[in-house]
Amino acid sequence: MIIVNVEGAIYKNGKWLLIERSLKEEHAGGTLSLVGGKVEFEGDSSDILERTLEREILEEVGIKVKDLEYVNSSSFVTDSGLNVVDIVFLCEHESGEAYAKSPDEVDGVIWFSTDQIISHSELPVYLKRNIELAELSLRRRLSLK
């Protein structure tokens, strides 16, 4: 079995939203990450990745996002041996103030610039890479406007 996970690289006012994962989380509790979650089976549907991500972001940090754009995909194995495919989307903040809305999943929220993320010694390489790729997508998007 493969778990499909979606994450949002949420951009607002020159910064990216990161969450501190709850210590209650089975995987990577207490670490900083993008906001997101597992895709649930819906039968026949469309736009399931985007709808899942929008729902997870609203449930976990209480904000709405717009203009979702594919950034990157990768795979990993959790500490308990589950296989995960992870898909990251660039998201623009639409409304709301981010906060730890779901205490079982999120212990805190923080906004970091790209430079703060890249230079942070405790952040994982994959998170830094996802932000670098999201930054490139954002620059392309802004150059087209």
Q: Tags for this entry?
A:
145 residues, alpha+beta, seven-stranded mixed β-sheet
What is the count of helical runs? 3
User: Spans of 5+ residues with little confidence (pLDDT < 50)?
Assistant: none
Tell me the structural class: alpha+beta
Please summarize the sheet with the most strands.
Answer: 7 strands, mixed
Query: What does the radius of gyration come to?
Result: 14 Å
Distance between the ends: 41 Å
CATH class value: Alpha Beta
The gross shape turns out to be globular
Tell me the number of structural domains.
1
CATH architecture: Alpha-Beta Complex
Fourth-level CATH superfamily: Nucleoside Triphosphate Pyrophosphohydrolase
* Element pattern in H and E: EEEEHEEEHH
| Helix fraction bin | 25-40%
Strand content: 35-45%
Mean pLDDT: 91
How many beta strands in the DSSP annotation?
7
Report a brief summary of the structure.
With 145 residues, the chain is α+β, with helices and mostly antiparallel strands. It has 3 helices and 7 strands, in the order E-E-E-E-H-E-E-E-H-H.
Please render the helix and strand layout as text.
Elements: E1 2-12, E2 15-21, E3 32-33, E4 35-38, H1 48-61, E5 64-77, E6 83-95, E7 106-112, H2 114-119, H3 125-144
